[in-house]
Predict the structure of Peroxisomal leader peptide-processing protease.
Amino acid sequence: MGRQWGSAMRAAEQAGCVVSASRAGQPEAGPWSCSGVILSRSPGLVLCHGGIFAPFLRAGREVLTAAGAVFLPGDSCSDDLRLHVQWAPAAAGPLGGVERGRPGLCTPQCAGLEPSPPASYRRRLQQPPLPAELLLLLSCPAFWAHFARLFGDETAEQWRFASVAPDDEVPEDEEEDQLRLLGWFALLGVRLGQEEAEEERGPAVAVAPLGAVSKGAPLLVCGSPFGAFCPDIFLNTLSRGVLSNVAGPLLLTDARCLPGTEGGGVFTARPAGTLVALVAAPLCWKSREWVGLTLLCAAAPLLRAVRAALGRLFPSTAALAAHLPLEVGVPWGLPLREPGPPWAAAAVLVECGSVWGSGVAVAPRLVVTCRHVSPREAARVLVHSTPLKSVAVWGRVVFATQETCPYDIAVVSLEEDLEDVPIPVPAEHFHEGEAVSVVGFGVFGQACGPSVTSGILSAVVQVDGTPVMLQTTCAVHGGSSGGPLFSNRSGNLLGIVTSNTRDNSTGATYPHLNFSIPITVLQPALQHYSQTHDLGGLRELDRAAEPVRVVWRLQRPLAEAPRSKL
């Protein structure tokens, strides 16, 4: 993952754990399990997802949605609840660093997968499950407020936050339970013996203040896929992505997460291993399609809620709150804006009647978007820039390619300059494998500002030595059409996103396989129009050669065949 991630990876792995819950005397009824974050090793304090406690609530799951329910004491769950926490030991290596590696394969699920290492090695790296108790269940009211704004009301039926595909049969009451539990977390006390307490002296976790991490910043997720299943293999698995979008304490990342990582920690590279958030829902589905984003709850407001709840439930044990991690107080930069310009702000929202999509400003009064967003020349469109208090600017479509043209492009001339919108530098060359990002208003539109997703430039398709199509592994969703594709290294504009991929035989959409028009195809004509207002260069796009049309027909079939469009 690169040199900058070394210390962050070690810190994340040392802060990760897996939590399992079962009923006393009924191991066959469970266990329920999830991931968690170690707030303190001595005394043992763990913050995990609250979903696994639903079967044990004395008053039933409805108590989670009761008016004013912000936290519940530990005795809200039945007496037969049994909790265990498993984490990697904070063992120091010869140079004082954390010992890396996986423990011996000893759990029943993993037995026989590989030869066991020497006993001394196993004793040093293997940490048996430790008993724990539930101190409190809590939620973040601000998280729920933003969740209701983004996912509630008219869009509720389109969204699912489940560990199974939408086509799988899930009882309606179970779906409702999953929604109730989405933003609930739990604070656990881990019971350590005297010998264990002396050994467990791991590093303290630092917490990022709310809003300190910028959209597009790289993130590292540490969780245990499938929870307590085979922790010898899956304990503290790492996944990397970026902070894709922000709505108060509700965060989104494009890091790949799996069921069981609920409650896992999300960390930054700088300062190394600083806790940003916890996973609330690893899989999100919209209109029965996986969107490739993971829902997070910011850690800072959660820990503030923990302190407040502890003060009310355990007023005589203020010492417990003293062991909770503190928020860091250093200035934070914008990692993806180095060394290039602040390119993420170049994306704009384009509205044409009831249709909307993304666009990119290529001049103070010139925006490029897709034809299927603004299909008619002379059409009036409304363009919104990314700052929250910005004023929308009216514009007119001065050019749109013909339906038969392989390049899905429209050009909008604005009546006024767009304020605070940087003009990106167009790239001249493309490098397969380089890190790239897509910025667009997919998924949420203007409700949450533009989203940033990361990946690599997976292919540069050429015709006669000239790039005519770019493919990336960034997650691209409906509404991202017309958005910019940037190079992370240089910050230069690489292309204009046109679509993701849809399998017409199955109906499945693949957000991580998508297509963009290289900016080198458009730049000469855009520059000529910007200087002369002559559309001649843009009209040449409609006369693309047949080999170019053949390439793009893989994405845009002929009119009589089903289309693969956003």
Notes: The CA atoms of residues 45 and 549 lie 60 Å apart.
